[in-house]
Amino acid sequence: MLRGVAALVVYKGKPALAEEKGGRLELTLEGGARQRVRPKDVLFLHPGPASLDLKVPEGEEEAAWELLEGQTVSLRELAELVYGAYTPEAALGAYLLAQKGERFVLEGEGVRARTREELLALQEAERKRAERERAFQEALKRLKEGSPAPEDRPLLAEVEALARGERKESPVLRALNLPETPEAAHAFLLRLGLWQRENPHPRRLGLPLQPPDLPVPPLPEEDRVDLTHLPAFAIDDEGSQDPDDAVFAEKVEGGFRLFVHVADVAALVPPKSPLDEEALRRGANLYLPEGTVPMLPPAVTEALGLGLREVSPALTFELWVSEEGELLEERVYPSWVRVTRLTYREALGVEALRPLEALAEAFRAKRLAAGALEIALPEVKVRVEGEEVRITPLPPYPSRVWVREAMLLAGYAAAHLAVREGLPFPFATQEAPARRVEGEGLAAMWEQRKALKRAQLKAVPAPHKGLGLPLYAQVTSPLRRYLDLVAHQQLRAWLKGERPLSQAEVLERVGAAEAVADLVREAERKSKLHWTLLHLEAKGYEGPGVLVERRGGQGVFLLPELGLTAQVALPKALPLNAEARLRFLEADLPALEARFALV
């Protein structure tokens, strides 16, 4: 490179003029910008003088390649062979031929002529690429017209993967100028008629959809208290497949004796076992309208579900409670129980459950006096049965209250025991609501629910203000909730005099299980809404709605028969709790939204 002469170089893939100044190069770029760089940052093409107004001449590329096949030469030699001279224009042309990479390829500062075999392979690859592009464009045309062909299936599988959250991008949607989102992919598949009822939400959240496939050990030999002479009732919704608690209460002097029997899952699932680690990974049973995905193998429920066999193993909470609902004493022990299964409706006619009813009312009154909140908004069960989606309102049977209060008593007793004995435990807590809402009806309950603080699971005790309890832990669903299982593991360790999990280990499990449980709840909510919208699209709807909130000219209605809320324009002022008839208009299935109008 001559001082004071502009040489031709390549900088970041583009031609530039370079002058040497103080051991560095000063570049003049296309457009006139100037920049100082190190010599090693550029590829030298020609010593100059040169300009950037270069026109590459016609050359003999193919003839040069035939002479050089398989050899490596300098850019200068290639320029002389292809263009017959070493000028700035020819040097640039040689570089561009090598950069194109067809017959020649850059290797360091030299250029290698490909072999004939390489060239043929490259041309074949280019032919296939062009064929793929042609097929892709033809497929896009068919997809735009809404008439996919069988050969388009691989492209559509990629769109389906995006709709299920299994990939982040889609060349098909990008080429069609559609958003590369799961919702847009879902809508596109619906328009094509390839999807109709598919529920993508659990997969999008990364949840497993098959039961665990792990061996289940036999029940260990150990002493159990024989309670088979006492009644015990597992009371659930119709169709429940995992009965993990049963109850019985009797009147005694000064109050009640309550038995809450819970499936003894920790007897088969000790901490850090493969079954325990799998349950932690899943967090909870996943209840979908199309079926349940358990957190434990079905064989665990078959062995331990209360009432599924003539006699069942249980962990029993035996509680003495005063007539005023005060917990006086608790005992916890492994047992054998003989359980009768009932639905909530059937339980209403069982005379043996009258003491449970009286006990439940006493404990409920005590909780309410302590500030507990009762929010009873309409609930429905959504089930997929073959081609039918069935939506069944859950009647507010009084027997639901009996069972709820018994479960709360067991949880209160377990938390009390854990604190007294210094046993690390997963406690359920809730701060006081932001405000207490005065008023009646569904509107007041709706507003109060909005003011609730989120319940939290912690490894340290704290009050549960929503329940009106100074301490509480969930212990009655170890078949269905992982942290209930952890509570049972801790209780069994205490009963047997073994080392329980440390507080740090419990805290670690609380954090991990709650993160997964949040995903499970989201999948259940979205799946329930998904199938409800499909039901509405198939059957339509016109029925009652209750106004629970006003937002400007809009009203939020609860639809008790559907378990939905709908925001509807109000043509006139309506009082809260007013009932009106609403008609379903349309659904946006990918967005999980439905539109209703007042009749």
Automatic annotation (TrEMBL):
Keywords recorded for this protein, A-Z: Coiled coil
Residue ranges occupied by any RNB domain in the UniProt entry: 224-497
One Pfam entry name: HTH_RNase_II
Protein name as it appears in the record: Putative ribonuclease
Coiled coil (residue ranges): 113-142
GO biological process: mRNA catabolic process
A GO molecular-function annotation: 3'-5'-RNA exonuclease activity
One Gene Ontology term, aspect cellular component: P-body
Origin superkingdom: Bacteria
Species of the source: Thermus thermophilus (strain ATCC BAA-163 / DSM 7039 / HB27)
